[in-house]
Amino acid sequence: MKSHSLFSALLILIASACVDRINFDIGVTEAFPIVVEGYISDQPGPYKIQISKAYDIESKYSIKTPINVSRVIISDSQGDLEELSQVNDGEYQTRQDGIRGVVGGAYLLRVELRDGRIYESIPDTLLASGKLDSLYFDFKEEKNLEGASEYSFDILFNSSSGDLNNFYFLWKFTGTFRADTHPELLKEERGGCQYYNGKCNWKPICSGLLNVAYPDYPPSYIQDKPCECCTCWYSIFNDRLTLSDNQLLQLGRFNNIVIQSVPLNGWIFMHKLHVKVSQQSLTPQAFAFWKSIKDQKEAVNSLFQPVTGKIPTNFVQISGPSSPLLGFFYSTSVSEKSIFITRDDVPNTSIIPATPPWEDSCLTLFPFGVTTKPDFWID
């Protein structure tokens, strides 16, 4: 039962990182507001802008409905601009070698809808990121209400602002782990018949196992090609926003800041965990946007604090039928650090929970898994 609850908690942690978008043909869009999400940084592109229909906050399901528009353009204070290309429904992207943010430059986003509405963001200046000085972890053991030990790693960092007059920052955590599964063990009655090379295959095609038996004979498999779904990589993200605060700043430094706690889960530590933390500079306006989101998220979990206040936006409408646009386009400079946490970092590896073999494709284990090894991953 305990292993099942750990699995469920991990599934929720991964699934809550983002919402799988469901597309609907919604036709004319002037009856509802639009949401725009995206930023430009001093890191190499491409940069992505997502555009969707604003959903009803009273609805049980917060589903983003992507919306396609006529044009999306990023421009800077020097007169340079780039029109973004559409890569998916409601998703637009700059070129790999396209426009790039520079410290001191100001950037704005222009969105032109198909019904004649045009919006532009107020220019946002790209400020220096400061420096993420160190990234480290602390192994923890705590007792639950039943007195049993629960283990985790706190992820901490030290950073400096670089400018005593600028202490507006957003920190993001991304953890990446690898898990191996065994689709070759999937039972015939569960796998279902999949036709491959004219024959009924009961194992997942991606396993590389091919049924070579004659029709009406018991299946007989050969390894026709390497397994393409036995190993996946998954990402987890910080479950709360981490923003700078006057109280945290000490002579231009932020010390011993905990950004995330990662449970000692058997799937996460089947091999090791790659941890990346990024420090993003913010203007006061961008900080106010993220602070309002953080306040509302925390208010939802409070019994005494009502959900109030309006999320700020830096978009103004310059043409078309009057209708609000929500969201915020900002400019940021980024400083990053990454480390690996391995099984050897656990004081006693015997306390790492065992995982039962997953008898199916690794793509079915957790949402948003990928079979392509990340460039930063070291086996």
Biggest beta sheet summary: 6 strands, mixed
Helix content: under 10%
* End-to-end C-alpha gap: 32 Å
Number of individual domains: 3
In terms of topology, how is this protein built?
Elements: H1 2-15, E1 34-41, E2 48-53, E3 65-66, E4 71-76, E5 81-83, E6 85-88, E7 91-93, E8 106-112, E9 118-121, E10 124-125, E11 131-143, E12 149-160, E13 169-180, H2 188-191, E14 194-196, E15 199-201, E16 209-211, E17 221-223, E18 231-237, E19 242-243, E20 249-250, E21 253-263, E22 272-281, H3 284-300, E23 315-319, E24 325-332, E25 334-342
Parallel strand pairs: 1-24
Antiparallel strand pairs: 1-2, 2-3, 2-7, 4-5, 4-8, 6-7, 8-9, 8-10, 9-23, 11-12, 12-21, 13-18, 13-19, 13-22, 14-15, 16-17, 20-21, 22-25
Task: Explain what the structure shows.
The chain is mainly beta. The protein has 3 domains: 2-128 and 285-335, no CATH class; 135-180 and 230-280 and 345-364; 183-223, no CATH class. 9% of the residues lie in helices and 39% in strands. The protein has helices spanning 2-15, 188-191, 284-300, and strands spanning 34-41, 48-53, 65-66, 71-76, 81-83, 85-88, 91-93, 106-112, 118-121, 124-125, 131-143, 149-160, 169-180, 194-196, 199-201, 209-211, 221-223, 231-237, 242-243, 249-250, 253-263, 272-281, 315-319, 325-332, 334-342. Strands 1, 2, 3, 6, 7 and 24 form a 6-stranded mixed β-sheet that branches. Strands 4, 5, 8, 9, 10 and 23 form a 6-stranded antiparallel β-sheet that branches. Strands 13, 18, 19, 22 and 25 form a 5-stranded antiparallel β-sheet that branches. A hairpin with a 4-residue loop joins strand 4 (71-76) and strand 5 (81-83). The protein is globular and about 70 Å long. The model is unreliable at 1-8, 15-30, 56-62 and 303-308 (pLDDT under 50).
